[in-house]
Structure formats: structure tokens, C-alpha cells
Amino acid sequence: MRILRFFQRQLATRPLPTQMCIAGTISGCGDCFAQYMSNNKGWDKWRTARFSFLSSCFMAPTLFIWFRVLEKVKGGSRTLLLAKKLCIDQLCFSPLFNAAIIFNLRFLQHQSIGKSCELLKEDWLNIYATSLKIWPLVQVVNLCFIPLNYRVILNQVVAFFWNSYLSYTTQRPIDHIEQFY
């Protein structure tokens, strides 16, 4: 119980760094899970590092700010307010966020900007369409029942499996990479 109290205290006093640490850890575990499930011969530690880095240094801070922006949406009944937030989240934020994640994953894989953009165009629609089957329900739960400082964490728990899917979908063997240096 002491560790839980410590965690809650850190989340209350330093929510962003705490969420960044948790996001990076969960994302790295998700990538390890994806590598294990895809029967990779060896563990690609750099791939796991890319996912952990991207999750802790890009995804968590972006979501931290985004959930605070969504809290500023006002007006209407509870149901109408939820519908507004969900539409803004899934139709405005999510397409851009997914694109940024895909592009950055490719770029961190040492692909050129041009090649990263090309692969983004190939993968984005499928990934976004798949995200619409999962994330709206997660966001309903998040926005209705989860306190603000815990929302990034719930997203990251679900993202364990989502990141496994992203890892499996976006990570190509090293011989497909166009080096930029």
C-alpha cells in the first residue's frame, strides 16, 4: 500500500513527470509483448526504446495537455457535453495525433522525412480506422468516470495493447529502412 500512496502523491504533486514515466514503461512493455507475439528471433531493444521514448516524451505530454483542453469544453447537458468532447477528440485530435505518432515512429527508426511521410500515407487510414473501433469507448469511460490526472494512465493501460498493434503494424525489418545519414 505504501507504493500506491507514493504513486498517488506523485501524481497529485507532479502529474506530468509521473504520467511520462508510466507511459514510457507501459509502451515499452507493449512493444516487448508485440515482439514476443510476432515470434521475433531476438529482442530489438532499440525498437522498444523508440516506443518508450515516443510515449513518454511525446504522447504523454500531448495527452496531458489535451485532456486539460477538453475540460474547457462547456455547454449543454451532460450527454451533449460528452458528445461534443468525443467528437472533438475523435474527429479533430485523433487523426492528427495518430499521424504524428506514425510519422515519429518512422523517423525514430532512422527513416528520412520523405520516406516517413510516404509510409505515413500508406499506414494512416488503416490505423485511424482501427482506432475508431477502440478509442471512442475508452474516451467515454475516461471522460465520464476517470479523474483528470488519471486519464493519461487509463489511456496508457489500453495503449499497452494499442501500442502492440502499432508496433506490429509500423515496424518493418531493418532492410526496408531508407537511412538518412
UniProtKB/TrEMBL annotation:
<protein>
    <recommendedName>
        <fullName>Mitochondrial inner membrane protein Mpv17</fullName>
    </recommendedName>
</protein>
<dbReference type="Pfam" id="PF04117">
    <property type="entry name" value="Mpv17_PMP22"/>
</dbReference>
<keyword id="KW-0472">Membrane</keyword>
<keyword id="KW-0812">Transmembrane</keyword>
<comment type="similarity">
    <text>Belongs to the peroxisomal membrane protein PXMP2/4 family.</text>
</comment>
<keyword id="KW-1133">Transmembrane helix</keyword>
<dbReference type="InterPro" id="IPR007248">
    <property type="entry name" value="Mpv17_PMP22"/>
</dbReference>
<dbReference type="GO" id="GO:0016020">
    <property type="term" value="C:membrane"/>
</dbReference>
<feature type="transmembrane region" description="Helical">
    <location>
        <begin position="49"/>
        <end position="70"/>
    </location>
</feature>
